[in-house]
Amino acid sequence: MTRQKEALEYRLRTEAEPSQLIGVRRNVSTHLDLWGLEPMSDDVCIVATELLSNVHKHAGGGPADVSLWYPTGDTLWLLVSDSSSNVPIVQDPDAKTTSGRGMKVVAGLAEYWYVLPTRTGKIVACQFTVPASLLPTRREALKRCLP
């Protein structure tokens, strides 16, 4: 009988406020480091920050959930949920515009992203491909994180 591999998960409830972003980045980065995914930290943290900034600017702020999910294989998911049904869109602002590039950044850094409506708002899910060079570290991450 073979034992099924465990997915690694991390969840954080936060307020979608600028003052909270540094703590979110720190927590996300710490968990990626624990999981052996430190080289992915900058991209994932930038995307998390952009999504939470969108919740603050376009959805009225309030509570948001940030989740990392690293199932077996080469995929890492970042999920940000909030209580607004407003769907983020990729804009193409002109050079003089000082905002509106957040989802373009998300689309450029994540392999794939989509919006899942929920009864209480939405989830923005972003998929990142884990480089093959980091996959051997998964076994070590499981040893560190699981009892």
Automatic annotation (TrEMBL):
<dbReference type="GO" id="GO:0005524">
    <property type="term" value="F:ATP binding"/>
</dbReference>
<dbReference type="InterPro" id="IPR003594">
    <property type="entry name" value="HATPase_dom"/>
</dbReference>
<keyword id="KW-0418">Kinase</keyword>
<dbReference type="GO" id="GO:0004674">
    <property type="term" value="F:protein serine/threonine kinase activity"/>
</dbReference>
<dbReference type="InterPro" id="IPR036890">
    <property type="entry name" value="HATPase_C_sf"/>
</dbReference>
<dbReference type="Pfam" id="PF13581">
    <property type="entry name" value="HATPase_c_2"/>
</dbReference>
<keyword id="KW-0808">Transferase</keyword>
<protein>
    <submittedName>
        <fullName>ATP-binding protein</fullName>
    </submittedName>
</protein>
<keyword id="KW-0547">Nucleotide-binding</keyword>
<dbReference type="InterPro" id="IPR050267">
    <property type="entry name" value="Anti-sigma-factor_SerPK"/>
</dbReference>
<keyword id="KW-0723">Serine/threonine-protein kinase</keyword>
<feature type="domain" description="Histidine kinase/HSP90-like ATPase">
    <location>
        <begin position="15"/>
        <end position="122"/>
    </location>
</feature>
<keyword id="KW-0067">ATP-binding</keyword>
